[in-house]
Structures are given as structure tokens and as C-alpha cells.
Amino acid sequence: MKKIVLSVVAALAVTAAAPAFAADMPVKAYTKAPAPAPSPWDIAFGTAFTSDYILRGISQSNKQPAVQGYFELDYTAAPWLTLYAGVWGSSLYSGFANAEFDNSVGARLSYEKFGLDLGYVYYAYPGPAATSPVKASSSISYGEFYAKPSYKVTDWLTLSGSVYTGDNFGNSGVSATYYSGGAAVTLPQFMPWGITSTISGEIGRQTYGSGLKAAGVNFADYTQYNIGIAFNYKAMTLDLRYYDTNASSTAAQCTSTPSVGAGSNICKDAFVATLKFDTTFSALK
Fold first, then answer.
1. Across residues 55-80, what is the average pLDDT?
2. Domain coverage including residue 113
3. Which CATH number belongs to the domain containing residue 126 in this structure?
4. Helix/strand/coil (H, E, C) string of the chain?
5. How many domains does the structure of the chain reveal?
6. pTM value?
7. Is residue 19 part of a domain?
């Protein structure tokens, strides 16, 4: 009897010890693989439909609607530096070219609330009618360097500026400079469905070198301004904007295109509606 009791106690001891032995055995850990680092490359693209293509206060589409689009390759070299190259295009109805293509390269820098966009843009105007008013049978295509600083004062207010300058405006061999300042105010949320709204405005000054007047082309300096409100929903934006200038309707920039004559209204005030779609490849993933 004593042997039977000892056998039972021994069996129970072995059984009780089994889980402890199992717990002491090394277990292979299965960890989830870390997510791959985001690619520094991205592509931004978009399209727009506007009731009037206005550049620096002057209609480039002879007060007609225009279709526009862009494509830009971005490379994030550092958290504070993005390099880019792209092309933006628009249809034209002014008679001096079939279309406009703005080819640009540059760098966007940021530091806390400051931003700075530095680059070069080449305005290309394909088409047999795209000839310079100064150089007969020469293309009006030309380039400008630009700097566009910005400062985010608060979450709802951003100040911005721009300077564009070149020494061959309209392939005329004459310098021209445009400089501007502006502000954008994000309004409190009051629209349904997550629609945000922003009021923005800009005032700018376009100046020309004396060589144009010496060549008999009266491109007069002028000031322009615009103010409007934009409604944004995801990748779509509806921009409603008012433009005006103090440019004379008899100035060369208002009358020198083939389809525009004296007394034209391309330099006069206008209300413009633009519907835009903007996104990036990374946002579509």
C-alpha cells in the first residue's frame, strides 16, 4: 500500500512540473516587419477649368474660358528641402500663340513657419503666330527667375510674396520685373461635409525696362490686384476671384496681340471662376 501511495505522489509531481518545464523553454518571437520608409519621390498633378486665364491682372485668353493642367516631379532631399521640376500648360485665345507651357525647376525650403520657393520658369508659346513685337519673326518665349517667400503667422493667417525677373521679356532683349505681396485667411469651419474656405488677396506691380519704349513698343508699368474666396473639398477647389489693374487700354500689353485691338478689355477688371483638381501619387495610395 505504501508503494502505491508513493507511486501516485510521484506521478502527480511529474504532471505538475510539466507546465513549468514548458515555460522555461525558449520561444521564437514573431515580430511584424517594420514599415518601409516613405519614398522621397512623388508626383503632383492637376487640372483646372477657368472662365478667364488672367496672368498678373491681364487676360491671356481674350476673356474666353481656358483649360489648364500641370505635372510636377518632387524629390524630398531633407525635411526642410524639396527639389522639383514640372510643366504647367494652358489653352490661349489671344491670337499670338496656340498655347502656353511654363517649364519650371526649383527648390522649396522651409524652417518652422517660414517657407521659400526659389526657381526658374521658361514661358514657351508654340505656334506660328507667336512672334515678338520687337524682333520680327522671333518667338516670344522667354524665361524668368523667381523667389516666393511665405510666413505662417497663425493657423489661420499666411503672408506671402513673390519676385519674378528676367532680362529678355517676350524675347525682346528688355528686362522686366514683377513683385507682389499677399495674404490668405482660413475661415472658421462653417461649411458642411468638411468643406474648408479661404479668403486671399494679392497686390502686384509689373515694370519694364526702357528698351521696349525705345523700340516703339509702349509697354507701360502698371499695378494689379485680386481678391477672392476658395472652397476646398478633398482634392477639389472652387476659386471665385475679382481682378483689376490700372493699365491703360491703349498700352501695348493690352493691344499688341493679333486678336486684340485698340479699346480692348483684356486689361480691365474681371470676375473669374476656376474649378481645380490637385493631388499627388502618394495621396492616391
1. 95
2. 41-284
3. 2.40.160.160
4. CHHHHHHHHHHHHHHHHHHHHHHHCCCCCCCCCCCCCCCCEEEEEEEEEECCCEECCEECCCCCCEEEEEEEEEEEEECCEEEEEEEEEEECCCCCCCEEEEEEEEEEEEECCEEEEEEEEEEECCCCCCECCCCCCCECCEEEEEEEEEEECCCCEEEEEEEEEECCHHHCCCCEEEEEEEEEEECCCCCCCCCEEEEEEEEEEEEECCHHHHCCCCCCCEEEEEEEEEEEECCEEEEEEEEEECCCCCCHHHHCCCCCCCCCCCCCCEEEEEEEEEEEHHHHC
5. 1
6. 0.83
7. no
